[in-house]
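In the design runs reported in the main text, the only information available to the sequence generator was the tokenized backbone. The following block is the verbatim input for one such run; it is reproduced so that readers can re-run the procedure and compare outputs position by position.
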């Protein structure tokens, strides 16, 4: 093992905050290392968002010109297109999230191709395989700026090492400089450095993970001592007796 300390300053990968709590987004918007924002219907539901348009307007009011992704909520491609065109009209920094398939597993490639050709900035989401990366990258082409969100964290949940997949995805997209690969659903801060090592362009991070960034570079011996002190303090405060 190397004794070299990791450093956030040396990173090339850009960090996007992932969430749907308006207050948290406003707070994170003040952090210069947060380069963009993403959300999705699941996060919005957990955060108690009830009015999509009002939520989006509030978010756009605090993120400035940084990119922000909002997702369509329809399952039929005709309605996805209508929603995508509305979402895309909310701001020049808006990326429209389109799922790679609908709930029946039907690829969204025709819709992706059409919206991209019409100049909409897309973030194609829920990609899990290299075949999906290859097909979506081809559909997006070489024009409008776009993102492909590869759910590396979910791949890791299946017992697979996501790094070779992400590295190959970067290679597949290399000749299309308008396309950015997103390491989505990370599980730990280490993933930031793994994404950086394979040339991934963006990584999304929830607020919980972002709050761990100050630990980067901490001396392991000092962290060990702080952990021992935490256990001892909590035992005393709990009043345990043996």
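Verbatim output:
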């Amino acid at each position: 093992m190397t004794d070299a300390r990791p450093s956030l300053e040396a990173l090339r990968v850009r960090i996007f905050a992932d969430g749907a709590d308006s207050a948290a987004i406003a707070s994170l918007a003040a952090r210069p290392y947060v380069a963009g924002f993403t959300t999705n219907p699941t996060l919005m539901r957990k955060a108690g968002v009830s009015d999509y348009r009002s939520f989006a307007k509030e978010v756009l009011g605090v993120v400035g010109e940084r990119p922000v992704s909002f997702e369509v909520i329809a399952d039929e491609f005709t309605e996805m297109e209508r929603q995508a065109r509305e979402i895309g009209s909310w701001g020049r920094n808006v990326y429209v999230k389109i799922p790679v398939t609908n709930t029946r597993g039907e690829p969204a490639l025709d819709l992706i191709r059409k919206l991209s050709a019409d100049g909409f900035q897309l973030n194609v989401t829920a990609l899990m395989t290299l075949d999906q990366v290859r097909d979506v990258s081809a559909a997006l082409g070489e024009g409008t700026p776009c993102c492909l969100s590869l759910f590396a964290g979910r791949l890791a949940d299946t017992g697979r090492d996501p790094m070779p997949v992400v590295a190959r995805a970067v290679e597949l997209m290399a000749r299309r400089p308008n396309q950015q690969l997103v390491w989505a659903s990370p599980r730990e801060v280490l993933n930031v450095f793994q994404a950086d090592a394979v040339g991934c362009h963006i990584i999304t991070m929830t607020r919980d993970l972002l709050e761990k960034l100050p630990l980067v570079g901490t001396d392991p011996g000092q962290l060990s001592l702080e952990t021992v002190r935490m256990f001892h303090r909590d035992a005393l405060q709990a009043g345990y007796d043996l």
